């Protein structure tokens, strides 16, 4: 066998080994990216995303984001989505959106939750949720509890804070409806839609 043929076979063998190695590493790299901690997101990035999402209430949104950042610091994730809720003493809340991060990708999320308290009415809302202390993307799939209050009629803007240990979610909503009250409840985040709020 002459030298050029041996060289071509050796190169083909090396190329095959390189492709096999890359294929075997790909799942590990995807897993490593999934496990990587999301980086913090600046208030300017949040305001720019919120401006595109909310439109006309972006000035109020900017003030809400700045207040949240001054109180809790920069989040390392945020969710943009829509939700609907209703209450007559006991209430239910359902929504869906996308979790955005700077460095570990985006993820579709759904949320549901029950509430109980002095709370009446119903609303539909566009929602931006700031996510704090997110250790990995799948870490958002948990329950976040707290006290939520709302006082807007016909249209308005509201901010609440919900926690699960070190993690915290701060929903910022612009809604249409009639809602008045205060309630105790939680939000459960899931990777797929479900009617079960518990």
> How many helices does DSSP assign?
3
Question: What is the string of SSEs from the N terminus onward?
Answer: HHHEEEEE
| Helix fraction bin | 25-40%
Rg calc: 23 Å
Q: How many distinct folded domains?
A: 2
Instruction: Tell me about the largest β-sheet.
Output: 5 strands, antiparallel
Share of β-strand residues: over 45%
Task: Provide the structure class.
Answer: alpha+beta
Q: What characteristic shape results from the CA principal axes?
A: globular
Distance between the termini: 72 Å
Number of strands: 5
Mean pLDDT: 74
Low-pLDDT segments: 17-23, 25-33, 149-155
Write structural notes for this entry.
The chain is an alpha+beta fold and 198 residues long. Helix 2 (43-54) runs antiparallel to helix 3. Residues 17-23, 25-33 and 149-155 have low confidence and may be disordered. The protein contains three helices and five strands, in the order H-H-H-E-E-E-E-E. The termini are far apart. The longest helix is centred in the N-terminal third of the chain and has 33 residues, at 3-35. The chain is globular, with a radius of gyration of 23 Å. It comes from Labrys monachus. This is DUF1134 domain-containing protein.
């Amino acid at each position: 066998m002459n030298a050029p043929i041996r060289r071509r076979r050796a190169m083909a063998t090396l190329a095959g080994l390189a492709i096999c190695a890359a294929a075997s590493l790909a799942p590990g790299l995807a897993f490593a990216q999934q496990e990587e901690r999301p980086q913090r997101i600046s208030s300017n990035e949040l305001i720019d995303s919120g401006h595109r999402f909310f439109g006309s209430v972006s000035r109020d949104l900017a003030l809400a984001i700045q207040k949240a950042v001054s109180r809790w610091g920069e989040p390392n994730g945020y969710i943009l989505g829509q939700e609907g809720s209703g209450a007559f003493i006991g209430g239910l809340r359902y929504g869906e959106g996308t979790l955005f991060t700077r460095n570990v990708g985006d993820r579709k999320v759904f949320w549901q939750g029950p509430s109980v308290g002095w709370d009446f009415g119903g609303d539909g809302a566009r929602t931006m949720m700031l996510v704090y202390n997110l250790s990995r993307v799948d870490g958002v799939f948990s329950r976040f509890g707290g006290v939520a209050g709302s006082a807007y009629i016909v249209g308005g803007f509201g901010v609440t804070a919900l926690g699960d240990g070190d993690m915290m979610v701060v929903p910022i909503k612009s809604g249409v409806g009639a809602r008045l009250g205060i309630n105790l409840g939680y939000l459960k985040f899931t990777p797929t839609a479900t009617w079960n709020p518990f």
